[in-house]
Amino acid sequence: MKFVIISDTHGQHKNLTLPKGDVIIHAGDISQRGKESEIIDFLNWFKDLDFKYKIFIAGNHDFFFEKTSENDIQKIIPENIIYLCDSGIEVENIKIWGSPITPWFYDWAFNRPRGAQISHHWQLIPIDTDILITHGPAFGKLDKTTRGENVGCEDLLHIIESIQPKVHICGHIHEGYGQTTSSKTKFINASVLDEKYGLTNPPITFEL
Fold first, then answer.
1. Distance between CA 189 and CA 198 in Å, rounded?
2. Whose CA is closest to 194, among 208, 179, 173?
3. pTM of the predicted structure, to 2 decimals
4. Nearest partner of 134 among 2, 40, 5, judged by Cα
5. pLDDT score for 41
6. In what residue span(s) does the Calcineurin-like phosphoesterase domain sit (predicted)?
């Protein structure tokens, strides 16, 4: 199966040029300010894409998903879109888990303090996960800011090193865009926008 990965479109999704594939995954920040109108605009675009499976998580800009009940969220998500929020799905024997959680940073959506509170979310990740999607990166994995600081989550890294998913997908740190491999896990930061919110980075693809 061919996977096409994007993240951090921040409302610029209609300007993307997407390669062909079987599965498209968006790793969060589909909106700029998290308004319902922005979310619906993205969903209307996403549902019409020519992929067999369409999967996304929310990000720290996507306040709508944190402030809205699960029941009301499901009412606006088209049937052919899979939304993951500390939850998983199995797609043709590939087990995928998604979480929007990021370490606390200026009181954005889905922020959790480092340590016990954020670890609670990571402990939910099944040990047999093949593809892990989190909005933020793991510590030291495509998480370096323009100031040279590694800002990823240490507790997330520990879980990844323990369960060793085949692929970890993130975004959030725009300047961390790219790929790297460590042990049995391929790490992908799929932020399509740069740190100045310019649409500069192409989607990333891989096959499983």
1. 16
2. 173
3. 0.98
4. 5
5. 98
6. 1-175
Q: Which amino acid is at 13?
A: H
- All structural domains of the chain, each given as residue ranges with its CATH number in brackets, are 2-207 (3.60.21.10)
Other Cβ atoms closer than 10 A to 15? 9
Sheet holding 82-83, edge to edge: 82-83, 53-56, 23-26, 2-6, 204-207
| Nearest Cα to Cα of residue 195 among 180, 178, 173 | 173
The confidence score (pLDDT) of residue 3 equals: 98
Task: Give the contacts of 196 (CB within 8 A, at least 6 positions apart).
Answer: none
Q: Which two tokens stand for residue 49?
A: 């894409």
Q: How many residues does the chain have?
A: 208
Alpha helices by DSSP H, the chain: 36-47, 63-67, 70-76, 116-122, 154-163
Residue 59 is predicted with a pLDDT of 98
Residue 45: left if φ>0, alpha if ψ -120 to 50, beta else—which one?
alpha
Distances (CA, A) of 28 to 9, 20, 44, 169: 8, 20, 16, 10
- Residue 123 CA to residue 88 CA, distance in Å, equals 13
Return averaged pLDDT per consecutive 10 residues of the chain, 208 residues in all: 98 98 98 97 98 98 97 96 98 98 94 97 98 98 96 98 98 98 95 97 97
